[in-house]
Design goal:
It is built from 6 helices and 76 strands.
Length: 1016
């Protein structure tokens, strides 16, 4: 739990000791006082200050809550501290007591301070609402006195002139904690290694100090006896830093570290130095020796320096035993060193080690001996299988592992272990090629070696030569008829050959050549000479056939067989081919292209026949030859140049007399012929709307074909008298309007047109088709008002049934569309009036449908007339109606008066056009007014005082005169009508009309406008 610490010079009680504390403390003796407002922090007592009224010994005290009340934990006395006192109590003295050394006790929050004197009371007070505990003691209190406060009297309304000053207490520390201490790693668990001694300069803190140690795996701390002990094994444990903290009763702390140096004990190798023997031929991974090492912790052993022939590794789970092995592939040499010294170093985890020597003595190797060399044997040069030709007798005194090789490698012989035995044999290689003529003997140097030494000797192989074969029934002379068939046995050639290696018969082969060349014979492996082609057409009288027989190595002498040919046939011959021929596409079926000319001197005894084959094979479907006459014709298949992937063909023509034949080549090229284009249909139809020039009527174009690919086609159009109204794209056939095409009355074009279209190919061939074009009437004209603005007058007092607008003329609308699209209907948009005051006939006449007097006499109202055609298109025009006032005449009394302006029909006749002209002149008036007001003399400036720019609407809404009340003026048109009316009135009734003329159309003031109204 955190404790509130005092700051230096913190005071409790009276802060400012002065002459206010001058009340007589009284004469009662042996009185004990205790201030209930105690100390609220933790610190040390520095001094007491008090106001003394008389001499005597005063005891300052600190009380602490205890079991039965409070107990004195510190008491200090002072007698006559200042040496002088004023008995009149007018100038009391300020006296104090400074605690030093062992008297600087520690106070805690909740401690109380007080005082006691054996004689009369000493400390004075003032009349302030404070409280102290007061008791009269019979004996002298001392440290350890316990009283169940409060007791006796509780005195109120007194503040005694006393205060206590507290300082911050000192931090605790350790008095004898070194920076480090040594402990052997073998020390037993539970062994005490150090006792911690805390200290504090504040004497009363010493007994309350608490010490803690940061948690450590290997050491334990007992806070009761302050002893550090070993809590677990220290074997192979690194140095440890123990952190201690001492805390006093105020929560002040001091921290120091103790480093425990764990002293490591070096390992000991027990069974070295030592030695063993090893054969120098050792090359495999083998166990050599086990090293025994003693240490209190794990150790690691290594050969130092490392060896390429030996390794050491831990034996099992314990690091106390390490095995030495040879490395697989190790290499020892007795000649370079008869022994090897291995330094074995064993190191524990603390870095301490022991090194001893292990010696390996090498056993020298004995060399092998070849007992049956030099020697020799003979081998037939035809030998081509693996054959054992000699077995070696080799011994080795100390190595069962021997390897024999040729010093110089051979491709014809090899050394290997005899199959099924333990001896080495010399073999001829399977597939070996010997040549006696090139080399008739071979010297083989044999090297037999163990792991270390060898013996070398010589073995010689002599070749036995192969004899060549010989023909036994050639030369010879025979006859052969031209009627002999292919495969006919002409002559059986025989021969003799001496057996080869191991008595095997050699495979014999026969070859022939002929004079003249290209002889029609072949000879089989058996020696049979056969006819391998027909000779019915042969014209030669005979052949000299040279024959040769060979085995796999040698050939015998060449001998000649003469073959005489009898019954020779005359050969046919084609004389007019081997040429090129062009055939146009679409040639007629069975058209004769060419007749083959073939001669044969045996005709008429021989009958000639013809055949033909074309390449590519598609030519066989287009051309054929008459087998009897030799005529080459077109076939029934129509020849289409554009669809042929290949257009050139090579045809081979054969002429045969039944025994012999002749061939010739004819190259046929199919040529292109221009063909007519054609529309895909005889008639086309187009249904489109009327429209402007450039509008596509048939965007995809007119479809047509042409067998010629590729081909350029051009389109043209003839629409008789309407040709100029349409255009056709000459390349794509796309159809469009050439100019604006209007079927409405203004255009007067027909709604259906018949045209002829022509397509022409690059060769001038054409085709035609008809096109029927239907043109649809569309709503392409909106209604048009002429004029766009209408002005009327209406009698505001007349009954609705008789109230008509003046002048009595309808609105005028035109629409250029044909038929229903040109039929007009009328309606009114009176949303600006807030009600439906007017109606309109379908002939355009506007009439009153509701009493209009509410609109205000003299007011001008505006609304829209809407004209809609049969296709839903509409236009709008503005209608302005001036509501006029009339005089009502009683049936019994007649009042004579002047006729008003609007009662005079002559005024009405010119007023209506004047309204329109006045509207046009408003803009000019505004410009003149602004110009004159800026640039003319005082007279005009005075006339322009009625002008206020941009306030016409806001000012007009404020007028409220008896006869002219423009209360609702939501539109610009109404305001303009009112101003025009006011001007017209001023022309008649006000000689000072200049003022009105000079005012801007948007600038009527209250004075200017109301003056005109009042004169009406």
């Amino acid at each position: 739990m955190a404790v509130n610490k005092c700051t230096n010079n913190k005071q409790f009680g009276v802060t400012n000791l002065n002459n206010n504390y001058n009340r007589d403390p009284g004469t009662t003796t042996g009185v004990q006082y205790l201030v209930p407002d105690g100390i609220d922090c933790c610190g040390v007592i520095d001094n007491f200050d008090a106001i003394y009224e008389r001499t005597g010994t005063l005891y300052f005290q600190i009380w602490r809550p205890s079991t039965n009340g409070h107990t004195i934990i510190g008491q200090w006395s002072t007698a006559d501290p200042n040496g002088y006192f004023n008995t009149g109590w007018i100038n009391p003295e300020r006296c104090g007591y400074n605690n030093q050394g062992t008297e600087r006790i520690t106070v805690l929050p909740g401690d109380l301070y007080g005082w006691w004197t054996a004689g009369e009371e000493i400390i004075s007070y003032d009349d302030t609402a404070d409280t102290v505990y007061e008791a009269q003691l019979t004996g002298s209190p001392g440290v350890g006195t316990e009283i169940a406060w409060p007791m006796g009297t509780t005195t109120t309304n007194r503040r005694y002139g006393i205060r206590v000053q507290v300082d911050q207490n000192n931090n605790p520390s350790f008095s004898d904690l070194p920076t480090s201490t040594n402990v052997f790693e073998t020390v037993a668990t539970g062994t005490s290694i150090w006792k911690v001694t805390p200290s504090d300069n504040d004497v009363s803190d010493a007994s309350s100090l608490t010490v803690t140690m940061a948690t450590n795996t290997y050491f334990n701390f007992d806070p009761n006896n302050l002893v550090v002990s070993v809590s677990s094994s220290l074997i192979s444990v690194p140095d440890q830093t123990l952190s201690f903290t001492v805390t006093d009763q105020c929560g002040n702390t001091g921290t120091e570290d103790l480093t425990v140096v764990v002293v490591n004990i070096a390992p000991v190798i027990q069974n070295l130095p030592n030695s063993t023997s090893l054969h120098e031929n050792t090359v495999t991974y083998e166990y050599v020796y086990t090293v025994s090492v003693v240490d209190y912790g794990p150790v690691t052993c290594a050969i130092n320096p490392a060896s390429s022939n030996f390794l050491i590794r831990q034996a099992g789970a314990s690091s106390a035993y390490w095995d030495i092995y040879t490395v697989s592939g190790c290499n020892f040499n007795y000649a370079t060193g008869a022994s090897i010294a291995l330094n074995v170093k064993c190191t524990d985890t603390g870095g301490k080690s022991d090194t001893e020597t292990f010696t390996v003595n090498l056993i020298q190797n004995e060399p092998p001996i070849i007992h049956n060399l030099p020697n020799s044997t003979s081998v037939h040069e035809d030998s081509d299988v693996e054959t054992l030709i000699y077995v070696l007798n080799v011994t080795d005194a100390d190595s069962p592992s021997l390897t024999c090789v040729f010093v110089t490698a051979s491709t014809l012989f090899r050394l290997r272990m005899v199959t099924g035995g333990t001896k080495w044999g010399i073999y001829s290689v399977a597939g070996a090629t010997f040549d006696y003529n090139a080399k008739n003997s071979y010297q083989l140097d044999v090297n037999c070696a163990d792991e270390r030494a060898s013996d070398v000797d010589v073995f010689t192989v002599y070749l036995i030569r192969n004899d060549p074969p010989q023909l036994t029934n050639v030369p010879a002379n025979i006859s052969l008829s031209t009627s002999a068939p292919i495969g006919y046995d002409v002559y059986n050639v025989t021969s003799f050959d001496t057996p080869g290696a191991d008595g095997r018969a050699n495979q014999l082969t026969y070859t022939i050549t002929c004079v003249p060349t290209d002889c029609p014979f072949t000879i089989l492996a058996s020696g049979m000479l056969q006819l391998n082609m027909g000779i019915t057409t042969l014209s030669l009288v005979g052949y000299d056939v040279s024959i040769k027989v060979c085995d796999h190595r040698n050939c015998g002498d060449i001998r000649i067989l003469t073959v005489n040919i009898v019954e020779i046939n005359d050969l046919p011959e084609i004389t007019n081919l081997n040429q090129n021929l062009n055939v146009p596409e679409n040639s007629a079926t069975s058209h004769v292209l060419l007749t083959t000319a073939c001669t044969d001197f045996d005709v008429p005894d021989d009958t000639l026949s013809y055949s033909m084959t074309c390449s590519p094979g598609t030519g066989n479907n287009m051309f054929f030859i008459n087998s009897g006459s030799g005529q080459i014709r077109t076939a029934s298949t129509i020849i289409n140049y554009e669809t042929l992937a290949v257009k050139s063909f090579t045809c081979t023509i054969t002429c045969s007399d039944g025994l012999a034949l002749d061939t010739a080549t004819l190259n046929i090229d199919v040529t292109d012929v221009n063909e007519n284009p054609a529309f895909t249909q005889a008639a086309f139809s187009v249904n489109v709307d009327e429209g402007p020039g450039g509008t596509l009527l048939l965007a995809s174009g007119l479809s047509s074909t042409d067998p010629d690919v590729p081909e350029t086609k051009l389109y043209s159009l003839d629409c008789n008298p309407y040709t100029g109204y349409f255009a056709i794209n000459s390349g794509s056939g796309a159809l469009s309007y050439a100019t604006n095409y209007d079927v409405d009355p203004a255009g007067g074009m027909p709604t259906k047109v018949q045209c002829t279209v022509t397509v022409t190919d690059s060769g001038g061939l054409t085709d035609t088709a008809s096109i029927s074009i239907t043109i649809n009437n569309i709503n392409d004209n909106a209604p048009t008002f002429l004029p766009a603005f209408y002005s009327y007058f209406a009698d505001g007092a007349a009954p609705v049934s008789t109230n008509k607008l003046s002048p009595d003329s309808p609105v005028s609308v035109t629409d250029g569309d044909l038929g229903a699209f040109g039929q007009i209907t009328y309606s009114l948009n009176q949303s600006s009036l807030g009600d439906q005051y007017f109606g309109i006939t379908q002939s355009g006449e506007i009439f009153v449908t509701k009493a209009i007097s509410v609109l205000g006499y003299g007011s001008t109202v505006s609304f829209e007339v809407v004209a809609s055609d049969g296709g839903g298109r509409s236009s709008r025009a503005t209608v302005s109606v001036v509501v006029m006032a009339t005089t009502t005449t009683s049936t019994t009394t007649t009042t004579d008066r002047y006729r008003t302006f609007f009662e005079d029909s002559r005024n009405i006749a010119w007023f209506v056009p004047a309204v329109a002209l006045a509207a046009a002149g408003v803009g000019l008036s505004a410009y003149m007014a602004l110009t004159y007001c800026k640039s003319t003399g005082p007279a005009f400036k005075l006339a322009c005082r009625c002008c206020k720019i941009e306030k016409v609407y806001s000012e007009a809404r404020r007028y409220d005169v008896t006869r002219l009340r423009p209360r609702n003026l939501p539109t610009r048109a109404q305001a303009k009508g009112l101003r025009i009316l006011a001007r017209m009135i001023s022309y008649t009734h006000d000689a000072d009309s200049t003022r009105i003329h000079s005012c801007d159309r948007h600038s009527y003031t209250d004075t200017c406008f109301l003056t005109k109204q009042e004169k009406i």
